[in-house]
Specification:
The structure is a homodimer of 192-residue chains. Chain A contains eight helices and no strands. With 192 residues, the first copy, chain A, is mostly helical. In chain A, helix 1 crosses helix 3 and helix 3 (51-74) packs antiparallel against helix 4. The interface between A and B is large, with 38 and 38 residues. The first copy, chain A, binds a DNA duplex (30 and 30 nucleotides) through residues 1-3, 8, 29-31, 39-43, 45-46, 49-51.
Chain lengths: 192, 192
DNA sequence: CAGATGCGTAGACAGTGTCTACGCGGGGAA
DNA sequence: TTCCCCGCGTAGACACTGTCTACGCATCTG
């Protein structure tokens, strides 16, 4: 039973990404991942000393994917900051709601090795982009502060909406009004 | 008041509340709770058919405690809405950061039976209060929408700050500027 | 050809949540 | 009184989990 073309390490992460998308974060058992990868339950240990490190590797894939989508959302950076921020926010929300299991995994810090594992390195540039855009959209304010508040707002909307805690009477399952309200709040009302 | 006199059911919840405060949410093992309550691991089953129901009961205590603090924070309701909302937000943040384990438990919906367990009933009135205050503070806007966005913002700040993901350079561990920024954003800048 | 080493296997171990059978003790009824 | 029932907790089994350790097999190297 050799690993096919690619090594077992990558295959385990592949299986994990697939599994979390299919069945949620609680399905990411070490033994189940090994099973689906076609190896014994002890095999992952050669590449991931602990279960958390395997989960962290899987989560890193999520952060990478999110970074790709975010980069695509902001485009070439020629659009005005407000439009880029709107696109970024929509992208973030859509990612969180489309990949619920992965998103849960990414922000369940009790499942990940606490920081320092590249998660910061993967999500921080995204935050840097956010700060820069906010700085351009609102030159008057402390960009880091506003960006932090906005980022927290997006995160909170993703979380609360994700498990139905924010069923506002306004529409069925449309998070756009809520998102618009948040963007308006942090970036200032409509007018440039 | 004293748990030892009020039956095993309440004692299990007491032990759980104590345990989650002391050692975090991951320590809330069914068997460990039973151990600390001085009963066998099968005993809880008579009152809580499943582990999740016990955890939900513990979380309900958290929601109740939060509701009490929130009521105390808003006071008699004579203060102006903006001040009440500020107090409410501070109260919420402080609760989340002071009772990190309990807060994590309360919003880990994978640990709780999905809704319908009174969690909604316990947290909804708080949200209702929020909507009402926002409506008074910003009569121009859709109160439910703004309140939802603000609530999400508080939640996001609590989460991100809680695990150090928002270490803004502005000060060491003071979340007040961030909170002020969020409140300013959703309620409008300082001036009445 | 022989040895070493990379890589996966297989079993043990402590721990978990759930299920089931059992026992004990206190009332109520005859 | 005596008997029976039933609430309530015990104890063990079961299928899982993550971790650890000893063991092989294959491949490459000297």
């Amino acid at each position: 039973m050799h690993a096919s073309e690619t090594g077992l390490r990558a295959r385990l992460v592949d299986v994990g990404v697939d599994l979390v998308a299919r069945e949620g974060a609680q399905a990411l058992t070490l033994r189940e991942i090994a099973r689906r990868a076609g190896v014994s339950h002890g095999a992952p240990r050669r590449y991931f000393p602990t279960h958390l490190e395997l989960l962290s590797a899987i989560a890193r894939r999520g952060f990478a994917e999110l970074a790709v989508r975010a980069a695509a959302a902001v485009g070439d950076g020629t659009a005005d900051p407000r439009a880029q921020l709107t696109a970024l926010a929509h992208c973030y929300l859509r990612f969180a709601l489309d990949n619920r299991g992965m998103y849960e995994l990414m922000f369940r810090h009790d499942l990940l090795e606490s920081g320092h594992l590249g998660l910061r390195d993967t999500s921080l540039p995204l935050f840097g982009r956010l700060v820069e855009l906010v700085g351009r959209a609102r030159p008057d304010a402390d960009a880091r502060l506003v960006a932090g508040a906005l980022w927290a707002n997006l995160h909170g909307i993703a979380q609360l909406w994700g498990w139905g805690s924010l069923q506002l009477s306004t529409g069925a399952d449309d998070f756009v009004p809520l998102l618009r309200s948040a963007l308006d709040a942090h970036l200032g009302r409509e007018d440039a």
